[in-house]
Amino acid sequence: TFQRTIESYVDKRVGTTYGPPAGKHMTVFVDDVNMPIINEWGDQITNEIVRQVIETKGFYNLEKPGDFTNIVDMQFVAAMIHPGGGRNDIPARLKRQFTIYNCTLPSNASMDKIFSTIADGYFVKERGFKPEVKDLAVSLVPCTRRLWQATKVKMLPTPAKFHYIFNLRDLSRIWQGMLTITSEIDPNTEIVMRLWKHECTRVIADRFTNHPDKEWFSKQVYKIAEEDMGTALAEHIQDGDDTYFVDFLRDAPEATGEEPDDADLDAPKVYEAIETLKQLSDRALMFQEQYNETIRGAKMDLVFFKDALIHLVKIS
Fold first, then answer.
1. N or C: which end of the chain has fewer CB within 10 A?
2. What gap in Å lies between CA 79 and CA 201, rounded to an integer?
3. Rounded distance between C-alpha atoms, residue 218 and residue 135, angstroms
4. Tens-binned pLDDT, residue by residue, of the chain (316 aa)
């Protein structure tokens, strides 16, 4: 597949020499280069093709055995995560073809500075937020980092849980969700704490495959919140007291015919907490009915039980 992909992007130059079209140079980025499975002889077949292209500047023709296809004006960039925990290394013969850079994580102070600046710049009075909400949001930055770091240390990847990989992108996703709320819902410290737990659970705990891991995370959320924020605020996010946030609870404004041409008649996407799972279930059923009325011949008949609704919240 890798060889076919390369062949699809190159044109014939002269003889058996091929290269990018119009005399251009091409950069091939190979992400997760250590992903190919290791066979019984200890080889990664795809990576042997990658090594051959880099080392010999070409590969053997699949249609004409024995004919060698030369590839010019092409360079390779690859990325991989550190081996271990069910993740393979790449062969030394391939590794030697690259200049290797190891990207380390920023320091705790740097991470806190980055996300504190973002939170401090968003939750401002000009957007209608209360001062206590802004102070709380900034205080949650190191709290979020500590929770993320504790999860990284505890929930290590294994061959059965190879997807237990937590990186800086998770912190970004949590704060992306935190910055979705607006002053339209008049958030207070309780709502912000509940939103914080919702985002942490949505981003991090969604990967957990068993109940012990989920229970550990829920207790860790409360423990770190209590240590950093105090018992009064931590009480809002006790175990079993979950609040879910969605942005599809509001109806679209009804057209009166007097709106300007550029009027927005779509349903407003306001990120807010649901009151009950029954409210969310009724809303989901309404959307399903609308879909069935609009799309003929493709009727959906879904059952919105609790777990399905919670997953719907996470992916929406």
1. N
2. 28
3. 24
4. 888 999 999 998 888 899 998 778 999 999 989 888 888 887 888 899 999 999 999 999 888 888 999 999 999 999 998 887 677 889 889 999 999 999 888 999 999 999 999 999 999 999 889 999 999 999 999 999 999 999 999 998 887 888 888 889 999 999 999 999 998 888 889 899 999 999 999 999 888 988 999 999 999 999 999 998 888 888 888 766 678 888 888 887 776 767 676 666 677 788 888 888 888 899 889 988 888 888 877 788 888 888 888 888 877 6
